[in-house]
Hints:
The structure holds 2 protein chains of 2 kinds. Chain A has 6 helices and no strands. By secondary structure, chain A is mainly alpha-helical. In chain A, helix 1 (about 1-35) packs parallel to helix 3 (about 80-105) and helix 3 (about 80-105) runs antiparallel to helix 6. Chain B is mainly alpha-helical. Chain B has 22 helices and 3 strands. Chain B has a 3-stranded mixed beta sheet. In chain B, strand 1 and strand 2 (about 205-210) form a beta hairpin. Chain B is rod-shaped and about 170 Å long. The relative contact order of chain B is 0.12. The interface of A and B includes residues 7, 8, 141 and 143 of A.
Amino acid sequence: MAFFRNATSVIDAIETFFNTVDQGVLVFKEGVSNYLHGNQEAFSNNIAMMAKLEADADDLRRDIENKLYAHSLMPQIRGDILRLLEEMDNIIDTAKKNLFQFDVEVPNIPAELNQDFVLLTDMCVSSVSAVIPAARAYFRSPETVKDQIHRVYFYEKEADKLADALKRKAFRQMQGLRLSEKFHLRYFTLHIETVSDTAEKVADLLSIMAIKRSI
Amino acid sequence: MFFLFLTSGLFLGWSLGANDAANIFGTAVGSKMIRFHTAAIIAGIFVIIGATAQGSGTTHTLSQLGSVDAVAGAFAVSLSAGIVIFFMTKYLLPVSTTQAIVGAIIGWNIFTGHTTDLSLLLTIVSSWITSPIIGAIFSAILFILLRMLLKRLQIHIIILDVYIKWALIIVGAFGAYSLGANNIANIIGVFVGSAPDVVIDFGLFSLNGAQVLFLLGGIAIAIGIFTYSRKLMIEVGNGIMALSAEAAIAVVLAQALVLFVFSSTAFSGLLKNIGLPAVPLVPVSSSQVVVGAIMGIGLVKGINEIRFKTIRGIALGWVLTPVFAGLISFLALFFVRNLFNLNVGSELNGTVAGTAISPAVIESLPQTSRHINLIWPGISLMVLLVLSAVVIYSFRQQKRRLVAEKELLEKEKQYNISQHALTNSEIRTVQLENVYLQNEVENKRKELINYALSIIEQKEYFEKISENLRSLINEKGPEVKDEKLKKLEVEVRQRMSFNDKVEEFNIRTERMHKDFMGRLTQLYPVLSANDIKLAVMLRLGISSKEIATLLNISPKSVEINRYRLRKKLGLGKGANLTQFINNI
């Protein structure tokens, strides 16, 4: 049946898209860690990998969009689904942008802050890792979405706290740093934090979408 | 003559198709899951099948209520129902074809003196009340089951969408079948008593007079669907779809089941066989069943807000529609009999309404009837239909092709226009470039002439110097020699004014500030060429000392020139000359 064949191909594309986003944030986490520990070669590999994954995610999103319209699939909720995919795509875009900023701006991060940055990145990546199963759940059992997204909100709040602590540490305790360096650190903290903010946005969207499906 | 009278029934069928198809396929069409034409074809086909195959049960009940045995009477009854529906729809009052036809039949009973079977009337009226309630129960149960099933199966939303699409088509087809089966009695029921005594053989199947009327009624409904239901389908569809696709399936299926239950002789017989009370085979209002079904879904979802206004409106329709239809029917029958002198039905004072036509009679093919063989005409018709379909399809394809070609031509035209515009602008650019190049050539020519003249002048000058020096060498008197040397020195110094360079500079500045010079001359015609030259130099930010060198005059003279320029420009004491010039 052509209808089912088309539907299955879209499902496969969505699954691959989610996997790509998941891999993207993992590479981001690894990239930040490699940068902090001075593993330049590994960091360069992470950047190349990130660029590829981001491009793949973009292609997949466009492919899904085309298929949904071409085969007139889900005319009522198509808009919601495409918005969800766009927001998910924003996550990998943000992660890529952040990693590239590390590469371009080469921020001077004191070794005392390495652990804080690793923790912050880890928390942000956890929020994304929590939102992906929730997004998958929307497609099969929307009633479980709510049970899954509370983890995203938790990780996002934790990331906020860590970022706040990091900024305080940089500005109040690191007297040896110049003001410009402190500003630079603050920007990078904000950049990393954006990843969990984007995940939170996806969680908000998913929550509304799940309610809409239950009405 | 019979077919002329039948038109009122067919009109009723057309309006039923236009209004009620939205309850069946509204969801699928309104949500753009299937195209209107596909929905209309499926609904049309299944309405005709339902009407022809299963329309006898409800017809029998209506004929029990009042067996209209004269075609003119049937016409008046059907027309009265049509008029009531038209006006009540116009004034947005809830109306049902069933209630209108029942009222009109009672009007006929009263006019012809037949007694109405009150217990049967009670059964019919109670079905109007019970059908939305049953619809609510069915839809609630179906919705709960569907929800449980979906929860358990956890089907991917995209696969589910495909299932829903097909489910809506299948359920819609079933709904159309049930609508035809249940509501055909409203349209054709009153004419069945006067149906022509014929059997038409279509080869694969044969139809008696009553069934032919059902077929015609079904076709009228199908035409109503095709011609007039699109807008309503989209409107109602969007309204129902606001629930969710699963709920919409439950609503449409519940409606189809209710209509089926109230029209199926087989189901009624089955219930009777297992010792349960038989369901009365009564035509019910599909719209009211849908309202009940939607309320059933609302109750399952825990929405306590029951629209009492809607219920009150429906209840009002239960009373108003039959009363109006009865009155109009009575009046119509009076006019038809007294004005046109036509028989509107047998008059039997005080007896129970005429002979009811049983479903078995409707479905039988009596041997005594006139047999009409339509095998070959039927085959010809089918061939004709297929050919027409092929012709229409190829015509459409050609039309599409032509439209595409037209679009292509339009695009090519647009492309040519833009190309033309581009070429024109290119030509203009080239022309401007030519003018610029001509000016360049002219300037170069001037420069060359100046250069040549300068060479000649310099040659002549140096020849003169050489001659003077030679005469100096030959000079004997030292005093005269000194005097001549001084004179020569002054001459050489005067010559050091770098005339050619200054001239070149002037040409260049003139070229660069052509627009500015134009504006300045236009605004201040009193300015001399030297004033303009000075203004240009000031605009370039050249200091007075530098200007003095360039113009080969003393700085004092530059100051005087500046003063004159200020005066001519009308500047006050505090005004900045350079700033003023820059602002021009």
